[in-house]
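Structure ticket #2291
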Amino acid sequence: MLRMYRKGISILSIISFTIFLMFLNIVSSSFGPELVQKTTGQSDVQKDYSFIRKWGSYGTGDGQFNLPISLIIDSKGNIIVNDRGNSHIQKFDTNGKLLLNFGATGTDDGQFSEMEHIAVDKFDNIYVNDPQSGPSGSGNPRIQKFDTNGNFITKWGSYGSGDGQFVDPEHLTVDSEGNVYVSDRHNNNIQVFAPVNNLLQD
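Resolution: structure written out below.
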């Protein structure tokens, strides 16, 4: 009797273990591939790049540069480059063909002195950090805004450490709501500016 009881327990244990293995197989089939795929995706990092093209040379003409500071890419894939030495901004298509050139040295609207970095918003308007430093500058740092064709829209800023003032504005960026973020490396702060009139643009 005791021997039959032990035999029954053994058979029951084997059946239970078999059911447990089947359950694990079902769970692995359901979740396994997804987990492996995620792990593979996280480790699949592109490390190799091949040269495509280049353009530009030293000079003052179209497609030439003298101390290009930074570049950005607009929503159409065009490359916009600010050239501090030549005090102008050039826009190129993806093949390096010049589309637009605007700006000059000076203190008037659309002119720059020792300009720093640039940014674009979702409408492809162009923002320029213009410290107005150096012998050709007014000494009143400002941000200038242009439309996608280089037409002047507005400007703001002056010299100082108060709200809306700058000493040495360098970087700037624009978020999806049109807010402009400006870093000032002398005042050691970040200022954020919101558009006063949120007018729809084409």
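Closing remark: Residues 1-37 form one domain.
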